[in-house]
């Protein structure tokens, strides 16, 4: 299950590649176009080096960068579909690979409101098979509109069921649990974190895998953009929470490994001890026939009722984006649009 010799597709599984894309410095639309060209070239070059690869993952912010002075301006935003996603789709079709890509997407659901931080999965035929809006933007740094597509899941190669989350999403165990609950056996995490949360990145990738008996494959931007250093460290975690592959801090490093989704599926069905995702909803099944299924967790009940509130809520100091120079947002309620078919199931 390692990268040594991983150039061919396993018989019952898939070969994945995580690209530690160099953090792009973007100051104009022309820079975005150059990044798209670079990503497309990377897809083709990686396939040439790893002929058996079936899934390639490109990090968050690889298309449009992290220029906080411009990243919500109309010039910097993209549409889906659009010329950028069309170029990615053609690369996937020509290389016969699935690909995961990052887009800062114009908000057509709520015109005039903040954009979405978006991930898409494109299949080997060039079709967008999953469309995800980041559920948990990294506040107070990021201005993105909170995701409204939930946690979609799609079929992938080699018996995989794929879900994707973006950066800070992975710090919430509920994200990974939701993906697993909807059938994902591989959770992809793309990110643009700087080094201050490097240790937490490694820890949560492992814990998300272990808690849900699924693979996690995760990759971060790499390099220095003149302000922050981005740590790269593509990571592949087994469904038992152990790390199978760990990248370094090198820009352009490609972390590869074989996944065997069938084994994760089998563990979920066969394991008696530590079948965490099953046991959560069947508490104490040795003492209670079928286990207790009533939810004992106050925070889940309150969250579902729209009443989530911490005991120290009134003492929280930073509750909007003014700390990072964003204007305060007026209290308004917006209807949530329905999830489109392209989001996945």
Write the layout of secondary structure elements.
Layout: E1 14-19, H1 29-49, E2 53-57, H2 83-95, E3 98-105, E4 116-122, E5 128-133, E6 154-155, E7 161-166, H3 173-181, E8 186-191, H4 198-212, E9 215-220, E10 222-224, E11 229-231, E12 235-237, E13 243-246, E14 254-259, H5 261-270, H6 276-279, H7 298-304
Parallel strand pairs: 1-2, 2-3, 7-8, 8-9
Antiparallel strand pairs: 1-14, 3-4, 4-5, 6-7, 9-12, 10-11, 12-13
Task: Describe the protein in words.
There is one protein chain. The chain is of the alpha/beta class and 345 residues long. Helix content is 23%, strand content 21%. The chain has helices at 29-49, 83-95, 173-181, 198-212, 261-270, 276-279, 298-304, and strands at residues 14-19, 53-57, 98-105, 116-122, 128-133, 154-155, 161-166, 186-191, 215-220, 222-224, 229-231, 235-237, 243-246, 254-259. Helix 1 (29-49) packs parallel to helix 2 (83-95) and helix 3 packs parallel to helix 4 (198-212). The chain starts with 13 loop residues before the first strand and ends in a 41-residue tail after the last helix.
Sheet with the most strands, sense and barrel status: 6 strands, mixed
What would the principal axes of the Cα set say about the shape? globular
SSE run: EHEHEEEEEHEHEEEEEEHHH
Q: Are there runs of 5+ residues with pLDDT below 50, and where? A: none
Tell me, rounded to a whole number, the average pLDDT.
Answer: 94
Beta percentage is 15-25%
Q: What structural class do the secondary elements suggest?
A: alpha/beta
**What is the strand arrangement across the widest sheet?**
5-4-3-2-1-14
- Span of the ends, CA to CA: 29 Å
Count of helical stretches: 7
Total beta strand runs: 14
Radius of gyration, Cα only, in angstroms? Answer: 20 Å
Indicate the percent of residues in helices: 10-25%
């Amino acid at each position: 299950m390692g990268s040594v010799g991983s150039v061919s597709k396993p018989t019952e599984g898939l070969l994945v590649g995580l690209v530690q894309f160099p953090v792009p410095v973007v100051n104009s639309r022309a820079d975005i176009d150059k990044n798209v060209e670079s990503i497309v070239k990377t897809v083709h070059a990686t396939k040439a080096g790893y002929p058996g690869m079936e899934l390639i993952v490109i990090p968050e912010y690889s298309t449009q960068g992290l220029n906080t002075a411009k990243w919500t301006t109309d010039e910097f935003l993209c549409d889906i579909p659009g010329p950028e996603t069309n170029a990615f789709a053609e690369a996937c079709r020509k290389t016969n690979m699935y690909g995961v890509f990052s887009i800062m997407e114009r908000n057509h659901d709520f015109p005039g409101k903040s954009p979405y931080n978006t991930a898409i999965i494109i299949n080997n035929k060039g079709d967008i098979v999953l469309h995800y809006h980041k559920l948990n933007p990294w506040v107070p740094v990021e201005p993105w509109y909170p995701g409204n597509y939930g946690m979609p899941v799609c079929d992938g190669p080699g018996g995989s069921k794929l879900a994707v989350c973006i950066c800070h999403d992975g710090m919430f165990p509920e994200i990974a649990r939701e993906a697993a609950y909807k059938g994902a056996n591989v959770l992809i995490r793309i990110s643009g974190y700087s080094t201050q949360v490097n240790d937490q990145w490694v820890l949560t990738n492992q814990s998300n895998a272990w808690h849900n008996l699924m693979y996690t494959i995760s990759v971060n931007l790499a390099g220095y953009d003149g302000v922050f250093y981005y740590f790269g460290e593509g990571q592949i975690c087994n469904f038992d929470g152990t790390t199978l592959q760990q990248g370094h801090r090198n820009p352009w490093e490609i972390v590869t490994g074989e996944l065997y989704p069938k084994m994760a599926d089998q563990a979920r069905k066969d394991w008696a001890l530590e079948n965490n995702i099953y046991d959560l909803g069947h508490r104490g099944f040795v003492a209670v026939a079928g286990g207790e299924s009533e939810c004992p967790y106050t925070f889940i009940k309150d969250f579902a009722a729209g009443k989530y509130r911490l005991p120290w809520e009134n003492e929280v100091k930073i509750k909007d984006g003014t700390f990072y120079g964003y204007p305060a947002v007026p209290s308004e309620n917006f209807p949530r649009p329905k999830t489109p078919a392209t989001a996945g199931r």
